[in-house]
Amino acid sequence: MEECEEVDKTLGDGTAICKNLFLCNRQETDFYLLLIPGDKNFKTKYLSSQIGSSRLSFAKAEYMEKYLDITPGSVSIMGLMNDEEKKDAKKEHTSRFREIVEIIKKNEYDLLILDEIIATINNGFIELEEVLNFLKNKPDTLEVVMTGRDPKEELIEIANYVTEMKCIKHPFREGIPSRIGIEL
């Protein structure tokens, strides 16, 4: 958490780092991934009563590896998907991307927006090489907008524009939760 606090200080723009805690019940039959603000203390008794579990504790490393396919210290929301689900998700994302490529080949479009494709690439659901191949061979008249954080260097090199956005104002900072269809 000390490293995360240092990142918070460096960003200095109200960004909050979250703690990701992998928990289980006493019987080690139910598992939970809890995301809380980094500056908040976690009290097991409060969460236990909210979810109806008599006692929670941190899950063993072997369960993290079994269910999340990650090791302690590297818990992320993407770890909720197991290997089989990841394979299915990759197959689906790749199939959809290929459908888009075929549609672009058959029709004349001026603009293609691939929202959050950077995260899709970074999480291994679409191969970077496949996207790069599309970008190198797309029609000259087609503008492609790709969104997402932390683009690979190869994408930055091939891009005409690269923009990093900074949040100035957001409803979340005023206590308004995320809304389906807007932030989710």
How would you characterize the overall build of this protein?
This protein is α+β, with helices and mostly antiparallel strands and 184 residues long. It has seven helices and five strands. A three-stranded antiparallel beta sheet has the order 2-1-3. Strands 4-5 form a two-stranded parallel sheet. β1 and β2 (31-37) form a beta hairpin.
Q: What structural category do the secondary elements indicate?
A: alpha+beta
- Helical segment tally? 7
H and E order: HEEHEHHEHHEH
Please state the average pLDDT score.
81
Features:
single chain; 184 residues; alpha+beta; three-stranded antiparallel β-sheet; two-stranded parallel sheet; 5 strands; 39% helix
Quick recap:
This protein is α+β, with helices and mostly antiparallel strands. The protein contains seven helices and five strands.
Present the secondary structure layout.
Blueprint: H1 2-11, E1 18-25, E2 31-37, H2 44-51, E3 56-58, H3 61-68, H4 83-106, E4 111-114, H5 117-122, H6 128-137, E5 143-146, H7 153-158
Parallel strand pairs: 4-5
Antiparallel strand pairs: 1-2, 1-3
